[in-house]
Amino acid sequence: MDPLVNAAIFLVKTLFSLYILAVLLRFLLQIARADFYNPLSQAIVKVTDPALRPLRRIIPGIGGIDLSSLVLALIIQIAAICLIFLLLGQNVPNFLLVTLWACVGLAASVLNIYFYALIIVIVLSWIAPQSYNPGAILVQQITEPIMRPARNLIPPIGGLDLSPIFIFIAINLIEILVINRLALALNIPRRLIMGL
Fold first, then answer.
1. Could you give the 3-state DSSP secondary structure of residue 126?
2. Per-residue pLDDT at 195 exceeds 80
3. C-alpha angle 164/105/110, rounded to 5°?
4. What is the tens place of the pLDDT at every residue in 180-192?
5. CA pair distance 123, 162, nearest whole angstrom
6. Continuous H helices in the chain
7. How confident is residue 162, by pLDDT bands cut at 50, 70 and 90?
8. Could you say which of 80, 90, 137, 159 is the most buried, measured as most Cβ atoms within 10 Å of its Cβ?
């Protein structure tokens, strides 16, 4: 493959992935009811707001959750897949298939966000417990909706919180049993889809 095409695909994947990450973080922040006065939350809002504002006029929120951010992430993922196929000089597959690929990629991205956010929370609990850093607070707020039910099932033992272990197990099981099976069933070209 031509090095220029490889470089272009790398740039497309990187830039689109970063924007999808920002949009998904905005969605997860809304689900977690995170502090939107946090400087990092404000940065995410500023980056994603220009693209979300027109979609909000068309797609209503449900229960205080802005579904337009999920739709935007899906649109960006679909656009990236189509652009990569065009850069490769190939025909873009059926739109429905590309949409299914994009949905699987977004689900994998959400799992990755939670996976790495949990790692950050665990490391911060060891090196900087009770940190008031805006980044640390934001990561804790994002993970709290999935940690709370796990903590209710598995109370701390001797001051040691084992609930993240079970969340990691759940994330890996979802990846193995759902994401990987869907990727095989839909014949997803993994190197082309962000999140996989």
1. helix
2. no
3. 30
4. 999 889 888 877 6
5. 14
6. 3-31, 39-58, 67-87, 95-127, 134-153, 163-174, 180-185
7. confident
8. 80
